[in-house]
Design a protein that fits this description.
- With 154 residues, this protein is mainly alpha-helical.
- The protein has one domain.
- 55% of the residues lie in helices and 10% in strands.
- The chain is built from seven helices and three strands; from the N terminus they run E-H-H-H-H-H-H-H-E-E.
- A hairpin with a 5-residue loop joins strand 2 and strand 3.
- Helix 1 runs antiparallel to helix 7 and helix 3 crosses helix 5.
- This is OLC1v1015056C1.
């Protein structure tokens, strides 16, 4: 998907594109991250350090993001960068350089998290996307320039 400044994006269409590009398992993994059901576990036993767990989760998120739409990638990355309490901020440090994406606004990530936390099935995930009403997000148009994108209900 390519975006231009001021373009209004249909959240339902984005969700359908995401669903068509990635497996249900991977998509639900991303949503569970948003819902706080996936956390970085403190590993005390030998051979399973905290940093290894962060890298493992970051790797899976990166794999998911590579399969999905740019908008979904940006929301996931920004969520990782800004989330607190689950150590996903540390995961974000691994995700962002490897994907080479700019961050979306914190407001947009917070809105996505708010709706994502309510979802459990693919249909409900799509409904969550449709619940965006003029949620301000940002998509990179070259670096470091950013463009404004508005997501709206379909």
């Amino acid at each position: 998907m390519a975006f231009e400044e001021g373009v209004v994006v249909d959240g339902g269409s984005i969700m359908k594109e995401v669903c068509s590009r990635t497996s249900e398992d991977n998509l639900l993994f991303c949503i569970n991250c948003l819902k706080g059901k996936v956390t970085v576990q403190e590993q005390e036993e030998e051979g399973g350090g905290h940093e290894d767990e962060i890298k493992r989760l970051a790797g899976r998120l990166i794999d998911c993001a590579r399969e999905t739409s740019e908008v979904f990638q940006l929301f996931m990355i920004n969520f990782c960068n800004n989330s607190t309490g689950t150590k996903f901020g540390e995961v974000g440090k691994f995700c962002v350089p490897r994907l080479g994406k700019a961050e979306v606004s914190f407001q947009a990530a917070r809105e996505f998290w708010k709706y994502g936390r309510k979802t459990t099935t693919l249909r409900e995930i799509e409904n969550g996307f449709n619940a965006f009403h003029e949620c301000a997000g940002h998509v990179p148009n070259g670096m470091p320039n950013m463009v404004h994108v508005t997501l709206k209900s379909s």
